[in-house]
């Protein structure tokens, strides 16, 4: 339970705390803005070969948090327009995943689970995040942009 609570606190409660702080500054400045949460493909399905129930639940919560805040903040006359979206990345090579991926079988399995045949790198998400933050996505809110190399397409 301690691990479960810690993961939910970091991923879901932490997202809410940061969004609320940002919204206060947006309202204070009286400007429209965009908030992007990092969800995960793990919010859409389960992970093979590793126990991630707490992580998956927390990232599913991030999706619903974004939809709820988009509805509350985007349609309220007491706030400037605040768009809220999520990005759901696929498996990423990071210091956090390196431990699990030290198992060659898991690295190969995760790489073969998407249409690109490899894992992603952190820098591959810069463009999608900039898109969600920019005016190029000015009619998007409560949306989830899945960038997973085709993982959820199968």
From TrEMBL:
Gene3D superfamilies: NAD(P)-binding Rossmann-like Domain. GO terms for molecular function: oxidoreductase activity, acting on NAD(P)H, oxygen as acceptor; oxidoreductase activity, acting on the CH-OH group of donors, NAD or NADP as acceptor. The keyword Transmembrane does not apply. Transmembrane segments: none annotated. InterPro entries: NAD(P)-bd_dom_sf, Sc_DH/Rdtase_CS, SDR_fam. It comes from the Eukaryota. Keywords: NADP, Oxidoreductase. PROSITE patterns: ADH_SHORT. Belongs to the short-chain dehydrogenases/reductases (SDR) family. This is NADP-dependent mannitol dehydrogenase.
């Amino acid at each position: 339970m301690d691990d479960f609570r810690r993961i939910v606190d970091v991923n879901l409660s932490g997202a809410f705390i940061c969004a609320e702080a940002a919204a206060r500054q947006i309202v204070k400045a009286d400007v429209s803005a965009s908030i992007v949460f990092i969800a995960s493909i793990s919010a859409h399905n389960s992970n093979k070969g590793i126990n991630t129930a707490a992580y998956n639940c927390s990232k599913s919560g991030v999706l619903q948090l974004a939809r709820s805040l988009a509805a509350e903040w985007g349609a309220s006359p007491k706030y400037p327009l605040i768009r809220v979206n999520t990005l759901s990345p696929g498996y990423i090579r990071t210091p956090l995943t390196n431990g699990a991926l030290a198992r060659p079988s898991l690295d190969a399995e995760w790489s073969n689970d998407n249409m690109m045949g490899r894992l992603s790198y952190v820098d591959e998400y810069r463009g999608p995040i900039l898109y969600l933050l920019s005016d190029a996505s000015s009619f998007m809110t409560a949306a989830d942009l899945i960038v997973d190399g085709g993982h959820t397409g199968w």
